[in-house]
Amino acid sequence: MTDPAPPSQPPVPPARPVTGTDPAVTLRGGDLGWRPVAPALATVRLIVLGAVLVVPLLATVVVALLVTSWVWLGTVALVVGGLWGLWVIRRQVSAISWVELDEEIVIRKGRLFRSLSSVPYGRLQYVDIQSGPLARAFGIASCEIHTASPESGGSLPGLPTAEAEALRARLAARGEAQRAGL
Amino acid sequence: MAPGGTADDGWQRLHPLSPLLRGGVVLLAVLGYVVSQLVDSVFQSFDPEQYIPGAGGEEPDGGWSITSHPLLALGALVFVIAVVGGVSWVSWRFSRFRVDGGQVELRSGVLFRQHRQVPLERVQAVETTRPILARLLGLSQVVVQSAGGSDSHLTLAFLAADRAEELRAHLLDLAGRSDERGAPQHAPGSMQSGAPGAIGTEPGSGVLPAGPVGAGHEEARPLVRVPNGRLFVATILHGSTIVLGILLVAAALTVGIAEAGLKVLAAAPAMVPVVFGLAASRVKELLVHGNFAIGRTATALRVRHGLTDLRNATVPLHRVQAVEVLQPLWWRPWGWWRVRVNVAGVHTGGDGDDTETVLLPVGTSAEAMTVLSALGAHPEDPVLLEALHGDGGEPGWTGPPESARWLDPWSWRRTGYALAAHSLYVRRGRWTRRAVVVPHARVQSLALHQGPLQSRLGLVSATVVSTPGPVDASVPHLDAVGAERFLDVVGERAREARRAVTPSGRDAAARAGEPLAPDPAPLVD
Q1: Contact B186, B261 (CB under 8 A)
Q2: Using the beta-carbon criterion (under 8 Å), do A24 and B488 form an inter-chain contact?
Q3: Which of A65, B303, B326, B455 is the most exposed place for a label (fewest CB within 10 A)?
């Protein structure tokens, strides 16, 4: 609490490799040092998808074998749907990227529907870390950033648990510093 | 840092009975039912008369059920209680909270773990509530409210009643103290007004916390009254009623032509619910906005409205986050406007969502300007006038490129944003004209969105996120470079505004900029 040094330096490393003028924040690409989320997130989501699909899939197979072979159409539809889900999940997860700037954290998501959300540290209300049992088994957690507006939607899924905790601590510290007035 | 373990650094537990209470009435009811059934069957099975075939109803000897044997029933009873008790105990063990390092933290959940922390500066109100069951057991819950709706609340359920009061006082104390750091001369006021739960006005309470600084509150200077006749006309002049009117006229005309007319008549009953729904919405509008009058005090706007039940609401000026002025096409011949605002901490989407967010249901240009200037705008500000009346192409305004016409053929030319010294102006819509003003200091966050069609055309929608409310400050269909520039420019202004605000922490506008200032400090103005 009684740090003699300016509070931003020791506990909070400069988030960005600062090189003079800012490279622009862009909706796609960009050389800001965008960070991806853990690929394990895709695995977790795929497992959930599989768990959701497996019961109807088995049901259609059984019905198709016992009653009428028309039901194979349903099986095919489910398989196609599953493959499509697989493709979408992989693309979605690889599309999530984020970067901590000097005064904001920026999160990008989506490929078909792209979105970018830039949340100033000074506006943070609180930060939630959440992890379900499956996510925990894969060592990831989601970090949700809340401002006074629910629309801000700064949720960052699929961070390694330690990383998520560290991010939360950093966000809290920066929020504190930039709110209290540097 | 952040040990995450069970290290005993200030973590406290809730009351052991709380999981049971949180399960609440449903759990108790189920439990009660099960227990009564089991006890019943235990006693019945000891009663020899029940075993006379035929006398005990349809209980056949061969029919085996769990309730047919007293020991089994007892066992089941014990089992149910043990399971409920066990789950509750585990749930209790895993819920911990602490007040430390300038924030309140709550960890909960066994399978789905949650860790929520609310900085004390962001606390808007601390309430203790006592649901009926909790009251019977002498428990209370402490709700720590920050802005952003009930979703952002941190609920400590449950604590012993006196401990809850103690904690509430402690939290208010801490929140007050952290405010005091920034605003020493206001400490006494904030503490006093804080104590009775007035840290942040309660949404809908319509009363400003009676702090010692607020002497000038009492009489509001009247600004605008809306005549009910005008409101009536304006309410009827609504898109839905006009479409309906056209339909009716068309129907009346076609009735003359034999076959088509019959078909129209046959379709008439289907229209009844539509007409009713429409009438209901119009009448509600009339009821809500009737007898409208607005006045201002030094620090707040007072709104009085309601045809049948009159309501008074207070909108503290420092809590206004965004302003929108809009004019449907049908109002243009009369030059009428509506003024709406986003107010931090006011619930919207509920039943009374209109009550504090409409500052002028329908008014002339002059009246709209009066209200706007009460909100800090200058009536002759050219940017404001362009936002209201401009049709596109004015210098200073940035809008979509021509390719946006594919997605927004009517309005793309008018759509745009402009930066003024203290605020961002956004205008949209050619039929329903909208002008939105968001002070740089109140920008919550910025966002960009791009759908597949936009992607084809190289367009991106930019949004300034405000607190929840009716005002939407988004600029659709900028070109990709323009959107990135928007992010850059608007973001930079917001950064400057925040920096200007934070260092002293004393600037009135600063406190205003922070919707969650625990105390209405900008009474200084």
Answers
A1: no
A2: yes
A3: A65
Q: B224 with B302: CB under 8 angstroms?
A: no
Residues A150-159 have a mean pLDDT of 80
Pick among 2.30.29, 2.40.128, 3.40.1350, 3.40.50: CATH of B381-524: 2.30.29
Give the pLDDT of residue A40: 92
Token pair for B378: 């200058």
Q: Residue A66: which domain range?
A: 43-91
How far, in Å, CA of A89 to CA of A109, rounded? 12
Beta carbons of A115 and B449 less than 8 Å apart: yes
Helix axes B258-289, B239-255, angle to 10 degrees: 160
Is A54 a domain residue? yes
Q: Do A80 and A63 share a structural domain?
A: yes
Residues of A in Cβ contact (< 8 Å) with B498 = 103, 120, 122, 178
* Whether residue B209 has pLDDT greater than 70: no
Model ipTM? 0.82
Indicate the burial class of B150 (C-beta count within 10 angstroms; 0-12, 13-18, 19 or more).
exposed
- Which positions in chain B touch A173 (Cβ < 8 Å)? none
* Phi, psi at A68, each rounded to 5°: -145, 140
Domain boundaries, chain B: 12-198, 381-524
Residue A140 shares a structural domain with residue A65:
no
CB contact under 8 A, B152 and A146: yes
Q: Which of the four pLDDT bands, split at 50, 70 and 90, describes residue B230?
A: very high
Backbone angles phi, psi at A119, to 5 degrees: -110, 120
Nearest CA in chain A to B102: A176
Residue A22 included in any domain = no
